[in-house]
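Dear U.,

For the methods section draft, I wanted the exact inputs and outputs in one place so we can describe them consistently. I've listed the two proteins in the order they'll appear in the manuscript figures. Please don't edit the token lines directly; just add comments below if something needs changing.

First protein:
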Amino acid sequence: MTSPTGQDTHGAETDFRERMAYGDYLHLEKILDAQSPLSASPDELLFIIQHQTSELWMKLAIHEISAAIAVLRADDLRPAFKMLTRVARIFEQLNSAWDVLRTMTPSEYTRFRDDLGKSSGFQSSQYRAIEFLAGNRNLAMLKPHEHRPETIARLEDILARPSLYDEALALLARNGFDIGADATRTEWRTTRPESDAVLAAWQTIYRAPETHWALYELAEKLVDFEDYFRRWRFNHVTTVERIIGLKRGTGGTAGVSYLRRMLEVELFPELWKVRTVL
């Protein structure tokens, strides 16, 4: 087959007047037209694209975590392992995005920072959804979304259901482990308190992984996820400090000092503490 220019196309389809093409399937016109810099700075496009691609990866993470929750509830662990592995790899991609943004210098960011107004990554509803799905349910974080009822409704729907970690603990209970008060918990909107009973259950599993292999693998998949999630948070702090130092964030937070406090938040606390007590 040859193209209109007479060149060989090696059999590839080239006439898409009545067929779906690559760009049609991916709606590339919408995606590539979604960048609207507000300043004359050439570096603002980097800032926009970095955050937009991060939001796309977070959309996939939400999809995979939600699916993992569903299969754990159904005692179907093998698909959950694949989904959680994918979530960890997604956060590896999100980590790499900071490397690109760190090529921006403080002088370059200063040229368009004021154009951002009060907008900030702190206001990402998808990031909040990921935290809520994992189990970090800080209700104060609903407030930045009060102006969007549909967003609040989506977040409230997540809060009304058990988190990923809640489902992991329910799985332990169904397998005969004593998980204390978590076994009868019915209120999901707030972050659960740490539990000595849950710690003891994970300790039993880690002391005899060959006896509890599926639960042991689940535990390690959860730790993998949080490991990459923590790295993403750490890279966020480092990138922000490298670019704006200790200035306040555009959204009104204390900037680096606020982000450093977030590093202390644990999604699956007993899984980290079990390493100390083994």
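Second protein (the one for the lower panel):
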Amino acid sequence: MIFGYARVSTQDQNLELQLDALNKFGCDRIFQEKMTGTKKERPQLEEMMKLLRKGDKIVIYKLDRIGRSTKHLIELSDAFEKMGVELVSIVDQLDTSTAMGRFFFRFMASLSELERDIISERTKAGLESARARGRNGGRPKVSEKKLKLALKMYGSKIYSIREIVEATGISQATLYRNIH
């Protein structure tokens, strides 16, 4: 059986690109998650792991979609190898059914982790630089007065969401998040 696994880091991100590629590959069943790759508990990955049998194939869009770190990717690869399961990464053009594929897997896993670390370091440096200039970043604070007005307008059932957003400057997401 060919299993697909797709993951994005946040609820706001879209799985469609990965799902299209996995469907095009011919996956029989696709597991998908919207959660950060740094979390150890990923229910869909764990569910897929329980179903794997010798001769199965796991297809992912990119290596960083399945593993938390190089160590985790190598642990997964070793587990797949012991189970007799192949791993294919579409973008990385990797297939662990070959010796070269297994070598390349370990090499690409290291590069993926390096890329994540570099991005993280750049982000931290950028934030420190901004703080040094007096900018704290993040979302601006929502005015309590405007939020109360938006909630009152919403409760009146007279105004549309668009009208409330335009009148108060409160975003639709903030409004919905504060409706009880």
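Candidate sentences for the figure legend, describing the second protein: The domain at 2-126 is CATH 3.40.50.1390 (Rossmann fold). Helices lie at 16-25, 43-51, 70-83, 99-132, 144-156, 161-168, 172-178.

Thanks,
Y.
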